[in-house]
Amino acid sequence: MLALLRGDTAARPRFDPELAGGLRAWLEDAAYDVVAKRGEHAPPLFLGPSQLLGLPAGWRDNEGLADELILSRLAHALFGQLVHEGEIGDPLRDALDALRASGAEALVGHVESLPAAARAALSETMASHAANMKEVVPRFAPGWMPRTNDRVAIPLAGGRVMLHGSFDLLVGLPQPGTASLCALGLSTSGPWARERRSLHYLALLETLRSGTPPFRLALLESATGRYGVEDVREEHLRAIASHLCAWLATGPHG
Question: Phi and psi at residue 6, in whole multiples of 5°?
């Protein structure tokens, strides 16, 4: 995966410098239309993958303790440890320690209160996910500037509409005019097409944040070890922006 993410550093793509501004103007128009419908005094509208891409409620927001959400939070905690420390000891214990340190006491308490058989099964599952991650995730040199859980928030319509999301892993530093970042998303349960679209959404947010898209995206499915790598193209960004505008025009806005 490291070779695929790195690519040919001499052939990094350059994007139209007006691309980010055009995408923002398109989204601003749609956002102001929503503000006009909701009224000036309506609370801000926060839009992330859960609302826009059909992810289960609370998937990235720690709402509830559904089995899939628990597995996702544990796997992402392990992924962060692997990226930053390069090793995993006892997968379930390490994941719980990381979540406890991050303040997720409710989730940790729930897992620790599971019956012995259920906790043993979860430990076995986490060991399988950890083995798949270790097989694929490279050790990143410090110069790659790897950062996990990199949060992005893009205000539209004067902050009355907020697009937000979080990169599971972002490496590299933005360079004016040249795509220089690559991102990796971790999926525990798919579907693949939905998770890939979520990465396109995050690529759009990065384009709006820094003015240049990431040049490459990778998706890793920790349950199977399957992964895919693709270049970011303008049509990806325009397609997801079009989807956002359509959602703003027709979606439930409270």
Answer: -70, -45
Q: Whole-model pTM above 0.85?
A: yes
Domain ranges in the chain? 2-56+141-250, 67-136
pLDDT tens digits for range 158-194: 999 999 999 999 998 877 767 778 999 999 977 888 8
Cα–Cα distance for residue pair 148/236, rounded to 1 Å? 23
Q: How far is CA 53 from CA 19, 104, 185, 220, in A?
A: 23, 25, 15, 18
Q: Phi then psi for 239, rounded to 5 degrees? A: -65, -45
CA 90 to chain CA centroid, Å, is 25
What's CA 202's distance to the chain center, in Å?
6
Cross-strand pairs, 161: 45, 156
Regions of the chain where pLDDT drops below 70: 1-14, 53-65, 177, 251-254
Q: Which residues contact 188 (CB under 8 A, 6 or more apart)?
A: 68, 71, 72, 75, 129, 221, 222, 223
